[in-house]
Design goal:
disordered C terminus, 11 helices, mainly alpha
């Protein structure tokens, strides 16, 4: 495995001359999502004059769902550009739409499997919020307020740790998807989890090495993210490549005939 400095240096080297493509893809992705989000703003604006109470809320649910699905597909498409750059292939802005044309349901169901893994943390946080709300409303004695704050703080910390742990575990999911047509959503997620077993600490260290750049992104009102996000994605793709070359993970339910790419990770011997 390479060091964090080596990953970052190689990512910058591979992105040199390709930043325009990646930044253009991020801008296009953001513009499209803003356009798709416009109906939600209109619904919120006219909710007070709608004939049926809460009609605005009911109308916003399917719109929000559609936006979430489209956002997942676009985000995976943008990352596909950085993934290609990591493998010295020319990035293409049109790959923003890649996942709409290549097994979109696999991408969406992969996200749902990831969400299921996050669910325990979400439930714990929700319980904390409910306890905090009940104790706060029922009576603001000193003890009840302190208990409410402690419960909310503990459940929030557990939630953050759990979510980040899951994100590290499933971080290879879409790289596997790019290389393995025909692989099911569940197998993509579970294979990523197996690949990351014993490697989450190293990937966390790589992300942590970008901490100073995160601060720069905050100070620049998010503009630095246009440079930072591609670097992190390319670095993660290089990390994935190292895991792949080491034969990390196992996958036993392979059906090779479903995959047309005979030279991918999906077909290598250590899957069997």
């Amino acid at each position: 495995m390479r060091s964090n400095n080596e990953y970052r240096a190689e990512a910058r080297k591979k992105l040199f001359g390709n930043y325009g493509t990646v930044i253009g893809a991020y801008i296009l992705y953001t513009l499209i999502l803003n356009l798709l989000s416009a109906p939600l703003s209109l619904i919120a604006s006219f909710e007070s004059i709608l004939p049926i109470p809460r009609l605005g809320f009911l109308a916003s649910v399917p719109v929000s769902l559609i936006i979430s699905v489209v956002s997942v597909l676009f985000a995976a498409g943008v990352d596909k550009i950085s993934y290609d750059i990591a493998y010295d292939r020319k990035g293409d802005v049109n790959d923003v739409f890649y996942c709409f044309k290549h097994e979109p349901f696999t991408v969406v169901f992969s996200y749902l499997w990831i969400f299921l893994r996050m669910l325990p943390g979400i439930i714990i946080f929700s319980v904390g919020m409910i306890v905090f709300t009940v104790l706060t409303i029922s009576g603001m004695s000193g003890n009840s307020f302190v208990i409410a704050v402690v419960v909310l703080s503990v459940t929030s910390v557990i939630y953050l740790i759990w979510i980040f742990w899951v994100k590290l575990s499933v971080s290879m999911t879409y790289f596997l998807y790019y290389e393995n047509p025909g692989m099911s959503a569940r197998d993509l997620v579970e294979t990523s989890v197996r690949m990351m077993k014993g490697n989450k600490g190293r990937l966390f260290g790589l992300y942590l090495s970008y901490f100073g750049y995160y601060l720069l992104a905050v100070l620049s009102c998010g503009l630095a993210l246009l440079w930072l996000n591609p670097n992190i994605t390319v670095s993660t793709a290089l990390f994935y490549d190292d895991l792949k070359n080491r034969g990390e993970g196992t996958y036993v339910n392979v059906e090779p005939e479903k995959n047309t790419a005979s030279d991918t990770y999906y077909h290598q011997e250590y899957w069997n």
